[in-house]
Amino acid sequence: MFGREKVRERKSQLQVACFKIGRESYGVTIDHIREVIKVPLESIYAIPNVPEYITGIYNLRGNIIPLINLNIRFNIPSVCETEEDKILTGYLIVNIKGKLLGIFVDKVLKVISFDATRVQEPPATLQTLDRKYISGVVRIDREENFESEYLILIDIERIFDKAEFEEIPYKESDER
């Protein structure tokens, strides 16, 4: 729902949930996010024979949801160095094509709003993660009181190709 073409078309404010994966700041439009939660390790149940980035399943108020680790998915080392960093880790519960997934992030930051016209194409030299996952990049002004100078916008619907998406164990959500 939030692709490069739609960014160019929109002339309105975007609301983006911001988080860290490794040392970089990323964002996902809030229309995909249901909530942000902490998941105790003892509540995660491992599943055999799934890709390494699927860390298990979790019972979220009767919904069994798969948990995805973006550090592993994107091959980005985690940098939880302090107790504060560990406290700020969490899962974004997202709805992708009718599937609820828990997406692990190193640090949950905040929700920010900005004009969609500020979104730029990702630079060709961007090495952080595969450009196909990226909707755009936003330069953050100092007065916006944000940790990073740039925010990389992830196209959450593109983080899995069709075959990978079908491998993810899930219970269908009634939210579409």
What order do the helices and strands come in, and which of them pair?
Blueprint: H1 4-9, E1 13-21, E2 24-29, E3 33-37, E4 54-60, E5 63-69, H2 70-73, H3 83-87, E6 90-96, E7 99-105, E8 107-115, E9 134-139, E10 150-154, H4 162-167
Parallel strand pairs: 2-10, 5-7
Antiparallel strand pairs: 1-2, 1-8, 3-6, 4-5, 6-7, 9-10
What does this structure look like?
This protein has helices at 4-9, 70-73, 83-87, 162-167; strands at residues 13-21, 24-29, 33-37, 54-60, 63-69, 90-96, 99-105, 107-115, 134-139, 150-154. It is built from four helices and ten strands; from the N terminus they run H-E-E-E-E-E-H-H-E-E-E-E-E-H. The protein has a single domain, classed as CheA-289, Domain 4 (OB fold (Dihydrolipoamide Acetyltransferase, E2P), Beta Barrel), CATH 2.40.50.180. Strands 8-1-2-10-9 form a five-stranded mixed β-sheet. It has 176 residues and is mainly beta.
Q: Which features characterize this protein?
A:
CheW-lke_dom, mainly beta, OB fold (Dihydrolipoamide Acetyltransferase, E2P), CheW, 176 residues, 4 helices, 10 strands, CheW-like_dom_sf, Chemotaxis protein CheW, globular, five-stranded mixed beta sheet
Q: How many domains, in number, for the residues?
A: 1
Shape: globular
Kindly state the percentage of residues in helix: 10-25%
CATH superfamily: CheA-289, Domain 4
The class by helix and strand makeup works out as: mainly beta
Q: What's the alpha carbon Rg, rounded to whole Å?
A: 16 Å
Per DSSP E runs of 2 or more residues, the count of β-strands stands at: 10
- Average pLDDT, rounded to a whole number, is 80
Any idea of the CATH class? Mainly Beta
CATH topology: OB fold (Dihydrolipoamide Acetyltransferase, E2P)
Mind telling me which CATH architecture this is?
Answer: Beta Barrel
Terminal Cα separation, in Å? 12 Å
Q: Sketch the major β-sheet.
A: 5 strands, mixed
Secondary-structure element order, N to C:
HEEEEEHHEEEEEH
Low-confidence stretches: none
Strand content: 35-45%
